[in-house]
Specification:
- With 281 residues, this protein is an all-alpha fold.
- It has a domain of 120 residues: Alpha Horseshoe (Leucine-rich Repeat Variant), CATH 1.25.10.10.
- Helix content is 69%, strand content 0%.
- It contains 16 helices and no strands.
- It is elongated, with a radius of gyration of 24 Å.
- The N terminus is likely disordered.
Length: 281
């Protein structure tokens, strides 16, 4: 059994590949000198669909879980050895495999650097954004960690997609919206005052009116941090417009819950010293 297993592992015809290289060129593209080549070959063979069916159905998930560690060990100069395997795992039929990669893509981005991230990870990241909620939550939980590694022009492209996180497969999945509010607080530092006002403000107001109180409480903090950022920015018209809209939308709301929201937002702004008291008044 041992002999047949070793033969299976090192039989190059069994290594899955979606490239147009010849077998010889494919072998060379996977060669490195950091770890024993036989060990890397065995790892790469784990994504072969026939192994998942005959050896272990969880093997692809274990492979995905270990991939950032393998990438760190090999170094970014040897990413070419793992790129095909990563793309194969990212399109795996099992959502648990894709979910595992979604939770670690920000760590892999740190290892690979901005150029490789922009070329090889951003397309995978974009695919995860449109995946099942179980996969999207992995991306959402580390949205700030990933976007801060991108160049500003590439980062701004995601402003148009943040609104999509308000829509989930199951509307009762309120933790998804709570996580979005938490991430938006962190994202305030990555965008200009105009971007915050134009793109993040509508999402924040929508979250403030959420049906679940836990989501609303985080959203009050989000709005107060938004007020602080816009007050510090120039010109100050953004913060004035924002406060006028708070009064119009919540203070003068016909529903008591909207007026209560205004009071809670005022409380948070006051407690966090987001505005000088004369401006607050």
């Amino acid at each position: 059994n041992m002999d047949s297993t070793l033969h299976y592992i090192h039989n190059d015809s069994d290594l899955s590949t979606n490239s147009s290289f010849s077998p010889e060129e494919e072998r060379k593209s996977k060669v490195q000198d950091v770890v024993p080549q036989a060990l890397l070959d065995q790892y790469l063979s784990m994504t072969d669909p026939s192994r998942a069916q005959t050896v272990d159905t969880e093997i692809a998930k274990h492979c995905a879980y270990s991939l950032p560690g393998v990438a760190l060990t090999l170094g970014r100069q040897n990413w070419h050895c793992l790129k095909d395997t990563y793309e194969t795992l990212a399109s795996d039929m099992q959502w648990k495999v894709r979910r595992t990669l979604a939770f670690s893509i920000h760590e892999l981005a740190v290892i690979l650097g901005d150029q490789l991230t922009a070329g090889d990870l951003v397309p995978v990241f974009n695919g995860f954004l449109k995946d099942l909620d179980e996969v999207r939550i992995g991306v959402l939980k580390h949205l700030h960690d990933f976007l801060k590694l991108l160049h500003l022009d590439k980062r701004r492209e995601y402003l148009y997609q943040l609104q999509e996180f308000l829509v989930t497969d199951n509307s009762r999945n309120w933790r998804f919206r709570a996580e979005l509010a938490e991430q938006l607080i962190l994202l305030l530092d990555l965008y200009s005052a105009r971007d915050v006002y134009d793109y993040l403000r509508p999402i924040a107001f929508s979250l403030c009116a959420d049906k679940v109180s836990s989501v609303r409480w985080i959203s009050y903090k989000l709005v107060s941090e938004m007020v602080k950022k816009l007050y510090m920015a120039s010109p100050s018209t953004f913060v004035t417009d924002l406060m006028n809209e708070l009064v119009e939308k919540f203070c003068r709301c016909r529903k008591w819950s909207g007026r209560q929201t205004f009071v809670f937002i005022c409380q948070t702004i006051s407690e966090d010293d987001c505005l000088p008291m004369d401006q607050f008044a």
